[in-house]
Amino acid sequence: EIVMTQSPATLSVSPGERVTLSCRASESISSNLAWYQQKPDQAPRLLIFGASSRATGIPARFSGSGSGTEFTLTISSLQSEDFAVYYCQQYYNWPPLTFGGGTKVEIK
Amino acid sequence: QVHLVQSGAEVRQPGSSVTVSCKTSGGTFNTNAISWVRQAPGQGLEWMGGTIPVFGTTNYAQKFQDRLTITADDSTNTAYLELSNLGSDDTAIYYCARVTGPLESWGQGTPVTVSS
Questions:
Q1: E strands in chain B
Q2: Are A43 and B103 inside 8 Å of each other by CB?
Q3: Do B103 and A34 touch (CB under 8 A)?
Q4: What is the pLDDT of residues B62-92, one digit of tens each?
């Protein structure tokens, strides 16, 4: 089973700041990585797939990068609606599909 | 765009079973891969298993192998999750999602509470 590790667990940020979230896979997953955003009492929403492709309707301030075992999600200028929990997930070798533990982006 | 609508909240006693449904619209149902993911209160996302109706295949996470059944009904475009022998640690929100590699579309979630 591929283990996904996210860091940090919590990030305190001011609106307008640039945010970088990290995700590491326990073995190479090529670019088979997705990022999700989850707000309170909502289902997760796909942001990024293929490590760097934005899903339909996702603003350009969200970008993903990386391949192999190291991945990054960047929010170029944090908006109020971006405060949420972000999860990475690999789909290179499954079952099982595996998720990282999440990074909570909170208001500083 | 595939839309997924799940059945409503459930309350069950320990040791019982629960069935959650996930009706899809848009796209071709039997070519959709559907996965089930759960989220315990205050916790992260946990993949439970999934099915690809067109291939007739179903996969389960090892920890649920003995008590999870995932099925699909082509005639109603609906996928089902049945979890048996419930314990308090099965209290969670259960989500279905369409899999196209990533989990592209998600249902709204079904809260399941296990309590005596």
A1: 3-6, 10-12, 18-25, 33-39, 46-52, 57-60, 68-73, 78-83, 92-99, 103-106, 110-114
A2: no
A3: yes
A4: 999 999 999 999 889 999 999 999 999 999 9
